[in-house]
Amino acid sequence: MLLVFLISVLLISLVTYRLLGFAKRLESTSEALDVNEILRNVVGFIQKEAEDQNVSIEFNLHENLEHIISDHGQLEQVFLNIINNALAAVEDEGRIEIRTWEESGYMVAVSIADNGFGMSTQTMNHIFEPFFTTKKQFGTGLGLSITFGIVKKLGGEIKVESQVDVGSRFIIFYQSDKVLSVRRTLHEPVEDIACRR
Ligand SMILES: Nc1ncnc2c1ncn2[C@@H]1O[C@H](COP(=O)(O)OP(=O)(O)OP(=O)(O)O)[C@@H](O)[C@H]1O
Ligand SMILES: [Mg+2]
């Protein structure tokens, strides 16, 4: 009984901590960012945990990727949430692959794929809802709802593909710096550009 109570208190503290952190990050900054570099940094944070689990993280990054105009900390948060979920979904000796590429010359795309236990259609329908988790007392269910909010706010798109017992793939698309700067010279407001996709 006491244990259940302590777990509930811990969970509430964790939720509050993450919500406060999220609120603080709502004030975003805009700068030209190298997505490859951010991905490498984020993997650096969790490399040790991955090694302990015998999980390999492979990079397949497009060289000289166009920069994107975004918020450094929020982008880190997005990738960290998705990679952490991938790490939780794979068995010992699992595999996570991180790819970047350019699409149609003006979009920067990132995919994070794992060969973990995957998701049913039923689960996939709810993953972006706040507090939806299949991790019982170990998850807050906030990771992907926060991720979704940030990606949208920064003018991006997020897509998910998954198959039970095969794995999952999260793909994020952002407009590159190039298209934003061209439109800026045409004096179009950046907010409009971000929304019109
Ligand atoms: N790569 C993945 N493979 C399988 N299921 C996933 C994957 N990513 C997300 N999910 C499913 O989506 C649910 C919601 O994820 P989300 O990150 O929002 O919360 P969580 O991971 O459960 O909790 P927290 O992020 O607080 O640790 C997970 O509980 C899991 O069922
Ligand atoms: Mg999560």
Describe this entry's structure for a reader.
The chain is an alpha+beta fold and 197 residues long. It has one domain (2-195): Heat Shock Protein 90 (2-Layer Sandwich), CATH 3.30.565. It has seven helices and seven strands; from the N terminus they run αβαββαββααββαα. The longest helix is centred in the first third of the chain and has 23 residues, at 2-24. The radius of gyration is 18 Å and the shape is globular. The model is unreliable at 190-197 (pLDDT under 50). Bound molecules: adenosine-5'-triphosphate and magnesium ion (MG). Magnesium ion (MG) binds next to α3.
Counted up, domains total 1
What about the largest sheet? 5 strands, mixed
Low-confidence stretches: 190-197
Instruction: Tell me which CATH architecture applies here.
Output: 2-Layer Sandwich
CATH H-tier superfamily: Histidine kinase-like ATPase, C-terminal domain
Q: Structural class of the helix and strand makeup?
A: alpha+beta
Task: Please provide the count of β strands.
Answer: 7
